[in-house]
Design brief:
The protein has about 110 residues and is mainly β. The chain has a single domain, classed as Bacteriophage SPP1 head-tail adaptor protein (Thrombin, subunit H, Beta Barrel). It contains 1 helix and 6 strands.
Length: about 110
């Protein structure tokens, strides 16, 4: 992997409850980084299909270790004009993949955006 391949910028968010109703949620930015985005492998497509999703993407990020650890509760925004209004949910996290010091994450669009 080369640094020049990490050309997609994204931000991880926590959804914070702001009121008494279930829909009273606000996005709180928790971490931003550059990632290498690529088309889903067969394994990644299987993860999405199992979760009832037909489209998504996979990315590799550097492991920030104790500074930030991605979780399934986080949502993601991609800094790209093609995705600027979309939120993505995490469906799979693979630590030390493809090698130590990296994390592979599979995401699909959040239907509530």
């Amino acid at each position: 992997m080369q640094f020049k391949n990490f050309n997609t910028y994204l931000t991880f968010y926590d959804m914070v409850k702001t009121g008494p109703y279930p829909d009273d949620l606000e996005e709180k930015e928790v971490y931003s980084c550059k990632v290498e985005k690529y088309d889903n492998s067969i394994k990644d497509r299987q993860v999405l299909t199992t979760n009832g999703k037909t489209q998504g993407f996979t990315f590799i990020m550097r492991d920030a270790q104790r500074q930030f650890i991605p979780s399934y509760q986080h949502t993601i925004k991609v800094k790209d004009y093609r995705f600027e209004t979309q939120l993505f949910n995490i469906y799979d996290i693979r630590f030390d993949k493809p090698k130590a010091g990296y994390i592979t994450v599979v995401v699909a669009e959040n239907e509530q955006t």
